[in-house]
Predict the structure.
Amino acid sequence: MIIERAEVIVTSPSRNFVTLRLTTDEGLIGLGDATLNGREHSVVAYLQEHVVPLLIGMDAHRIEDTWQFLYRGAYWRRGPVTMTAISAVDVALWDLKAQAAGMPLYQLLGGASRKGLLAYGHASGNDTEELFDSIRHHLERGFRAIRVQTAVPGVRAVYGVPHDVTVSNGVRSQEYEPASRGAYPAEEDWDTRAYLRHVPTVFGAVRTEFGPELPLLHDGHHRMTPIQAASLGKSLEPYDLFWLEDCTPAENQEALRLVRQHTTTPLAIGEVFNSVWDYQGLIREQLIDYVRSSVTHTGGITHLRRILDFAAQYQVKSGMHGPTDISPVGMAAAMHLGLAIHNFGIQEFMPHSAKTNSVFAQSFTWKDGLLHPGEQPGLGVTLDVDEAGKYPYEQAYLPFNRLADGTVHDW
Ligand code: GCO
Ligand code: MG
């Protein structure tokens, strides 16, 4: 199975996506997600200029060897751009191998370990009433686990809460999408003390309204110091969170030691990580409970599986990143991997827009709160190139934060 063509396709149906498309001499087409939100063209250039020329004429069956060749052969290792580019190649090769075998990819990864993947949705609101509506809306759409984000009194714009929600017949019609199109990132504001006072009251209200059973999650989005995070974890203990995510900026692994000493609230971290080395101390010292890496940004199925196998020795589980900036190709890869591994925890699931689904045909199912990748050979995703061509790339940025005195803060 020889690679004859390798194309990098950029499309922007409702947000930007980058996809690597490999075609073999037998006419099979394999896809890999190469989307790095807000920095898309860095991965396009990495692939087009430096990787595509190496792929032509290669044996598509040699997944492990190709991974090592691209990782070690570049000399310059790790980093989101490199690891996203390697992931795209890795996932496209797994897609091809599974199609050649005539099996859905999860079968090649060891077969199904469960019926489907518990997935959580994003509920949010500017006030309690709006938040409760959003939670109910998600429960009606079949979600059995809910991430809760709310506005904070005194703060203009908060991560996870849409600014311009439209409500018709009591149903919120806009999903939260942080990246905005334009030539400059949107500026948001932040006040950690106001946030720390407010969040426990929100979780108290949600538990009173929805009872003790519903798994609830929360994303701190890298904004706290270690001692602030410890304090939040402690104050949320009565509300029994499934996890508290990214409570401190993720690059400082030692911060989690301090947080862990003070709270039993389960911790999830790693959506901005890209290699097993980012997790080494966190997993070995059992400082986290869930690995947030996506297949897309962490060197593909080959490398994320390695991280998760390491994590399994410490009872640390998967919690793969799945916002809309993970393309349908990246989501399919996550679902196949999540179905196969033993230490699956939960999958983040933000449904893609109708426009996105018109570009990417997908085989996954969503039933009884569980995702399943479907039974089509390979990943089960096809890319309609003509449809993709209708939506050219548009510059887009994630927002950034400034404190009241003008200092830039983690967003
Ligand atoms: C999440 C994430 C995302 C990120 C986004 C950045 O937990 O889903 O925090 O919403 O902000 O992926 O591109
Ligand atoms: Mg997050």
Observations:
- Residues 219, 221, 245-246, 271 surround magnesium ion (ligand 2) (CB under 6 Å).
